[in-house]
Amino acid sequence: MEKILSREALCSAYEHCKGMLALRCSAPHDIQSAKKDILCCGGTGCHASNSKELMDNLRNLIREKGLEDDVRVIQTGCFGFCAAGPIVKVMPDNVFYTQVMPEDAVEIVEKHIVGKELVERLLYVEPLLNERLHDYAKMSFYAKQQRIALRNCGLIDPESIEEYIAHDGYQALAKCIFEMTPADVVKTVLDSGLRGRGGAGFPTGRKWDIAAKVNAPEKYIVCNADEGDPGAFMDRSIMEGDPHSVIEAMTIGAYAIGAHQGLVYIRAEYPLAVSRLQKAIDDARATGLLGNNIFGSDFNFDIEIKLGAGAFVCGEETALIHSMEGQRGEPTTKPPFPAVSGYWEMSTNVNNVETYANVPQILLKGAEWYSSIGTADSKGTKVFALAGQVNNVGLVEVPMGTTLREIIYEIGGGISGGREFKAVQTGGPSGGCITKENLDLPIDYANLGKIGSMMGSGGMIVLSDQDCMVAMAKFYLGFTVDESCGKCTPCRIGTRRMLEMLEKICDGNGTMEMLDDLERLAETIRDTALCGLGQTAPNPILSTLRFFRDEYVAHVRDKKCPAGTCQKLYQLTITDACIGCTKCARHCPVDAIRGEIKKLHVIDQSKCIKCGACIENCPKNAIVKE
Amino acid sequence: MKQVNITINGVPLTVPEGTTILEAARMLNINIPTLCYYEKLGCGVGNKPASCRVCVVEVERRRNLAPACATPITAFDEGMVIHTNTQRALKARRTVLELIMSDHPQTCLTCAKNQDCELQTLAAEFGISEIEYQGATNRIPKDASSNAIMRDLSKCIRCRRCETVCSKVQTVGALTGYGRGFSAKVATAGMMPLADTSCTFCGQCVNVCPTGAITGISYVKQVWAALNDPSKTVIVQTAPAVRVAVGQEFGFEPGVPVTKRLVGGLRALGFDKVFDTNFAADLTIMEEANEIVQRLKSGQNLPILTSCCPGWINFLEYQFPDLLNIPSSCKSPQQMFGAIAKSYYAAKLGIDPKDLVVVSVMPCQAKKYEASRPEFANDEVRDVDYVVTTRELCRMFKEAGVNLQGIAESEYDSPLGESSGAADIFGVTGGVLEAALRTVYYLVNGKNLEGDAVNFRDVRGLEGVKEASVTVAPGLTVNVAVASGLGNARKVLEIVRKDPGRFQAIEIMACPGGCINGGGQPYLHGNADLLESRMKGLYAEDEAKTLRLSHENADIKQLYAEFLGEPGSEKAHHLLHTCYHCRKK
Predict the structure, then answer these.
(1) CB B252 within 8 A of CB B264
(2) Residues B23, B122: one domain?
(3) Do B225 and B210 share a structural domain?
(4) In principle, which of A312, A410, A575, B54 could form an S-S bond with A483, CB 3.0–4.6 Å?
(5) Cα separations in angstroms, A77 against A40, A156, A344
(6) DSSP string, A200-226
(7) What secondary structure letter does DSSP report for A102?
(8) CA distances from A337 to A322, A328, A329, B217, B223 (A)
(9) How confident is the prediction for chain A on average, in pLDDT?
(10) Is the pLDDT at A34 greater than 80, yes or no?
């Protein structure tokens, strides 16, 4: 691609490239058309399920059939529907295939591409209707979504700067540089109401405003790509699926605050995102969209990638900055805020990936457009990583104010296995749970805060009646204990002491006083820990103690785990329903089941490891936890 | 600077912006407990990681409690209302302290820091009678790999003072945060034994550790054993800086020299002879001044660096191996004393050097390491057998019921006890250079400095780096520098690397302020004013003597006449000089 050295050059590049997306964006849906784009998900999840081999097979077959002039196989970013991957979408047909294996390439090419017939067995089954869908548009998973941050994911080839330009890429940056002053840009972001998507929800425009007003010899703009919340992967997907949007947004931010160097702090555990981002940076630089004299203007800006080792605490901005400096990844007390003293003690602005991904659209379409989406408190959309006991697992982007019920029962396709909804854990290890009573609460920063949870980075774990809330709190606390940097006392020792109490409770060794001790210690830690990680670490405990105290009491007083997940609080026993088929005994890995054929079997409790293999294999449901 | 109006516990106060809540509270004599905080580690560096959370206070309109030590009152905080002793703050502090104690061995009775421990003091002040939250503890084997510094990480409270002083003040960087979460430690890289690191054993970490996690390795037992062994003649030498610090432990005015009582106390402990390292300091000056004059005359191998401080020599060997040729080849006074004692003095007494035990009382941990260097022994007979620090000596006094307040004054023994005022000031930054200049003047001009000219005030004071131009004789001006604290030493050495001609003589001491702030001195507990007092004490000691020039020391003259010949002689070289080795890691 030629260098783009003026705004006019960007326009002509757009004209030159826009045809690349014709089949995907504007053509009528027509299975009979000869020209086709076969989009294959190239996100980490689908990659791990051999999507690369699938793409190779598809390309080889297309070539063998001599169709390469008409049919293109394109690797895109994540479609968000990760549980059903690898995903293949055929355009302009608007057909969505799920769980496609490399060997399915033959059938797709021969039957669909050549034969113009759908491969029924690969079509997505809508859980609510229990039928295979022919048209992507009818998928409930996507119907209620509004994709702004994820708009290019699953649409364009993330490794092609041309395709990004074809979808209005770098237009927002050009608009900023040629039509707006830095102060205009800050004002637009401020007016849009965009808030930080990384966790705390600080207004992005205010952050930029503060940084812009700091008088410093050097300023840095940083992208926090250290996504550490277990279960959340929207940042990774954006970087894998639409890296140029992050680059464009950082450049806009740099223009707004007066920075000339950008840094992306990304965990080395995201190799695909790192390589895509690096390629995008290289391409942008080669095209004149990074470096000196961007668009031929006098604005200079470049971006460097800094790899992190994947510590949760390095998502905290001061720890992140120390890690980038080569120091131990530990937070320091604020103030001074990074805007005043950050990277190498220079003014530094840190925003998260998803926040940046919204920025080009805001600049292009205006603050009014963005602030028309969402609630009074929270504008725009939010990406959630939907997981747990829900039928459709994956990334969903919905307007702020969408209710939990809509997300779980419409987009998520309801609770899996027909179980009963119990709660949703939002905000990962820093958040809290939302119960049935709040299913119709419009989700935004304020409402989540009111009920003791938080938006966090958007993890959303759906829990059913088979999930123990005490064990859930223990799980998250175990995570924070592992991920604590160990700097301050409340987090280093306090969280460990809370975990020890939870372990005792889950093992049936808890006392009623312990519940009060736990609550008191949790409150002190929240009040005294140095950084956000420590201050929010007690949230899962405080939240479950508030909404599910009865479950704690059951563990302590009755020595029972109502959900049947705390191993030390139940035994597996075989009831009279046993027909003596011996299946359980044959599947027991520790030889704990004895019994003669056609007679009642018995479990030796001293040997049983409660793995549940017997339950799974019993044809009569004769084995129970009690 | 903007003034900000605040209220603490209902009392209005105006402070300049940037003042911390802790500093503001202290202006009102409101005490807020601290633990990790340490205001003056040296060289303008403090430790306020805000990590212990013992100093939390309530600030109105803030969601969480704020650490008083690290919360600045900014220009935006006009009208800030602070409460330092609400139930919320007190309960939080108590919980935090209990949490720290829940991962602490609580073996106070057998701890080297018993009654000198900040955690113990806080626990007493808070009246902690039981620990509510008990659980797993970090139990880490002690590191006694070096023969100077003992690390017992089980007692570490992660205040990071040692790490800060080691990396920011001394720029040695032997200690760092290591591991994560509950098992996070302040440790050496990869938990390697301290002896295998580039630790200089300066002992500044020992001085600032609030608990018993870092202490000196003690040879007190061995000293008692030697004193009780009738077959041994046990002699002791006392370093210059000891006399102005030892009194602190016995209720004397800080910094006041208690030399004669110190001598009396040592006699009471049973030492056969009580000698003075100062004698050897004068001897050092004889050799070193001679070396300076030789090098100035030849113009080669300049600048000359002093070599009395073993922490500094370790630093040089690890960090500046390209400069090994420029320090003076003189052994330190401690080692000169040992070498002379085991040769000249043993011969005088007519005893086998094997039966002569030399004990040093030093303000220093690195002296323990120095005494054990392989080159400082003769056929397995060590020049210096045992080193005890000022602190350890105080414990010995207390154990033996010797109270310096009540002890009779006594004089040092002869012939290794006589010393000049020039030797006294070895204990403070700038003193060695000043002492040397007094004798250099004599060597160059053939006459002594008179009156006030003896005092080289340009090289005095506690600043980290001092520079001066000294006219020794008409046409002979020497540019000198004095650095104390290894971070400052690094700065000066970087200058030497770039511009070797800028200085002709440089004094370096590892500890900020010199030996008065050595790693074996009674704890300052954050009171840096004590250093000022100790410095004044040493200069007063110098001023009070009529003998203020090393080369006028009669016992020294006699030593050369009877035994060594002249400064720089072959015998002097054999006994009093050494060489340095590259130990780059």
Answers:
(1) no
(2) no
(3) no
(4) A312
(5) 8, 7, 35
(6) S--BHHHHHHHHHH---S-EEEEEEE-
(7) G
(8) 13, 18, 16, 43, 55
(9) 94
(10) yes
Q: What is the mean pLDDT of residues B377-387?
A: 93
- Kindly tell me the burial class for residue B395, based on how many C-beta atoms sit within 10 Å of its own C-beta (0-12, 13-18, 19 or more): middle
d(CA A438, CA A456): 18
- CA B111, CA B109: separation in Å to the nearest integer? 6
Q: Which of B50, B134, B182 sits opposite A530 (nearest CB)?
A: B50
pLDDT digits (tens, 9 = 90+) for B306-318: 999 999 999 999 9
Q: Does B110 touch chain A (CB under 8 A)?
A: no
Provide the token pair at A156. Answer: 């364009």
Number of Cβ pairs < 8 A linking chain A and chain B: 108
CA atoms in the 13 A half-sphere facing the CB of A165:
24
Which residue type occupies B544? A
Nearest to A261 by CA among A281, A279, A280, A241: A281
Span A195-222, pLDDT tens digits: 999 878 999 999 999 999 999 999 999 9
β pairing state of B11-16 and B3-8 = antiparallel
Q: Cβ of A486 and B64 within 8 Å?
A: no
**Dihedral sign of CA atoms B73, B76, B81, B85 in order:** negative
Contacts of A530 in chain B (CB under 8 A): 50-51, 53, 67
3-state secondary structure of B15: strand
* Domain presence at residue B514: yes
| Domain that includes residue B23, residue range | 3-98
Name chain A contacts of B88, Cβ cutoff 8 Å.
527
Smallest Cα–Cα separation from A551: which of A605, A515, A498, A597?
A515
Q: Is-catalytic flag, B307?
A: no
Tokens representing A498?
Answer: 């809370």
Question: Is B331 found in the same domain as B265?
Answer: yes
Model pLDDT, residue A551 = 96
Q: pLDDT averaged over chain B?
A: 96
Helix (H) or strand (E) holding A111: none
Q: Considering chain A, what percentage of its residues have pLDDT values greater than 90? A: 88
Domains and CATH numbers, chain A: 7-143 (3.40.30.10), 169-370 (3.40.50.11540), 381-464 (3.10.20.600), 469-556 (1.20.1440.230), 571-625 (3.30.70.20)
Task: Tell me what the mean pLDDT of segment B200-215 comes to.
Answer: 97
Nearest by Cα to A572 from A550, A547, A545, A602: A602
Closest partner residue to B182 among A488, A493, A521, by Cβ?
A493
Cβ atoms A508, A552 nearer than 8 A: no
Q: Residue B100 is nearest to which of A483, A493, A529, comparing CB atoms?
A: A493
Q: The CATH number of the domain where B366 resides is what?
A: 3.40.50.1780
- Residue that terminates a domain, selected from B214, B238, B265: B214
ipTM of this model? 0.93
Q: Which residue bears the tokens 């006294």?
A: B424
In a domain, B563, yes or no: yes
- Poorest-pLDDT segment among A27-31, A236-240, B94-98: A27-31
* Catalytic entry in B218, B328, B420, B550: B328
Does residue B525 share a domain with residue B477?
yes
Domain contains B368: yes
For residue A187, count CB atoms less than 10 angstroms from its CB and return exposed for 0-12, middle for 13-18, buried for 19 or more.
middle
Same domain, B329 and B210: no
Residues with Cβ within 8 Å of residue B289, at least 6 apart in sequence = B436, B439, B440, B442, B443, B550, B551, B567
Question: Do B171 and B44 fall within a single domain?
Answer: no
Residue B149 in this model has a pLDDT that exceeds 80: yes
A492 touches chain B (CB under 8 A): yes
Above 90 in pLDDT, residue A453? no
Are B113 and B80 members of one domain? no
Residue B306 lies in a domain: yes
C-beta separation of A444 from A403 below 8 A: no
- Do B415 and B556 lie in one domain? The reply is yes
